[in-house]
Amino acid sequence: MKNQLKIAIVVWIIVISVTGNFFAAAAEPAFMAVPDKPNPVSPRGYDNFSRTLTFYWNPAANAENYTVYWNSDNGDSGNLTLAASDASCGGGRCAVSTTLPFEGEYHWYVAAINTEGTVNSDTIDFTLNSNISTPDAYSPSGTVYDNRFTTFTFTDVQDNVKEYRIRVLDVYSSRVVMDRYWSVDEISCEANQCSITTDTFLPGGNYVWRVRGYSDNSASNWSNELGFYVYCTTCGYSTGSTGTSAYTNPVSPTVSAFQTNTVPTPVSPTGTISDLIPVFQWRTLTGANFYWITLYDASGKVLYNNTSDSSICNYETCTFSPGFSLPAAGNYSWLVAGGTNTGVTWGSASTTFTLVDAPKAISFIRPVDGGVIGTSGSSILWTDAGSLVENFTVVIYDSSNQVLLNTTMDRGTLWCDGTQCTLEFTSIPAGQYRIEVTPNSTYGAQAASASLNFTVSDVSQTIEIIYPKDNSVVQPRPLFRWKIPQSPEETITFVIQVTGSDGNTAQIGPISCGKSGLTCTENEAFFIPSDSLPSGSYSWTVHSPELNASSEPALITVE
């Protein structure tokens, strides 16, 4: 599904009824007509951020009762009733409140009812929070004693969620130690809760975790963060190995809880990183007052070698920031040894990590900064930063810098093809806007944001026809020539439409400059069709959907 930005225009209709006075010799029963058609006011559009909301509509003449009917694209539905005499219909506006079950797309209308009949209003569409509901993280929390298997439990937010993503970070280094996706088919969900047990080995230590849901075209916000401590009672330690070596002490250990450590187990960097300037962290070696740190490339060549005293350590970890920049993306390993400043080593350990390129910032292709797009069927294109980018954060602001849209969109939703990505709008109101796009990598790194100012106009630009002009006589394969409203780009397309006197229409295109036989200069475009037109009378126009520009029709005669 394409992400869509719609803002509806509310039309206020005020109906004033004036009733004269009638005098009669005898009273006759009052005649009641069916109710007037009620006018729904809100909610509508996209600016609805709470599941608890109020339906508003203008009262309808002759109504005795109202019923509000709502349904969602998820299959949920309901109705609410209100007497026309209720105080909630005072002041020229009726209102009734409820709490909807989920976030998503909704539709509603109100029925005005009396003894003579029922009249329904028009149906109004609205979106309740364009993102998926935010899940709540429940467990693990506190102390975990088995680091071989961890069960994560959180709310089942539904909302057409197709998969969940769980991320675990080391408290001290903020290093991501687990970042995995599970489809809903792999997760056990019941009674509004989901759980998944992972076999990812977590060394002893302190962690935080969070979860988010993904649908086909949206993502929830991250859940609340929960902290937990893995108290490793099964870890074995051996010199030079990082297999199961890890922290063994809580955040605030007592003297009795403290255990001697004989291996300076590496903590970070490990796994996959995107920071060119790594910070080295390892478990404090009990009694050591001196450390040796060595970094190797994939071939075993020493890239960095240095030492430090124990001033960089607390009771649990040592943190060393050499300011050394890695030369390029690739595989690396590093070793840390601890001992005394006389050169005696008591223990050492090593680990590996992979540096991946951080995502690059995008560049906007169309429109240009300050350019114009149309109110319907328009799109914004930018360069594709490549498969390293997992998704994009897209924020759209209005002219007063208020946020109209803030969402995360994956590559499929944006039609990314390795060259460009396309954000399509079904409709967008006329006005001044600014869009900000931030690429996010698979490993959590963000590129710099890029922004673009653009105008949405419901007034088409005019394309001036150069040849054949109105009332021209042409050959069966005429040269079509027109002026271009702005400098041509390969991404701008044109459609030539030729209509015969019998009403039949032939369409050529879309065609773009330098392709399909279309030749463009700085200000003009030229095209000769490959097929001949039969003799007769025609009209022709040219249109560019990207420029929101069209020509006036020109009448021509083919001889």
From TrEMBL:
It comes from Flexilinea flocculi. InterPro entries: FN3_sf, Ig-like_fold. This is Fibronectin type-III domain-containing protein.
